[in-house]
Design a protein that fits this description.
By secondary structure, this protein is an all-alpha fold. The protein contains three helices and no strands.
């Protein structure tokens, strides 16, 4: 199969080879296809997880369970200080 890349695609392939991420253009394309397949396979699961987290967060806010920006900064500072002590 022959695939024709535009100038941007060609530049990307050359750069990947120059950086040593691949030896040939075919290898770059194979890596991209593998990455795309992985993203497609796990993308829906990740989307469902994120939607559940957002729903839980919305429900917590509705119940008044949240930090104000000032409280969040104070909590992060406390956690950061606790890490330094260990």
């Amino acid at each position: 199969m022959t695939v024709t890349l535009d100038a941007v695609g060609q530049k990307y392939v050359r750069r990947e080879i120059e950086l040593g991420h691949a030896q040939t253009a075919d290898e770059v394309v194979a890596q991209l296809l593998a990455s795309h397949a992985f993203t497609q396979e796990w993308g829906e699961e990740d989307k469902a997880w994120l939607e559940r987290r957002l729903k839980n967060s919305d429900e917590a806010v509705a119940r008044g369970e949240y930090f104000t920006p000032e409280e969040a900064r104070a909590e992060l500072a406390r956690l950061k200080a606790a890490r330094r002590i260990r």
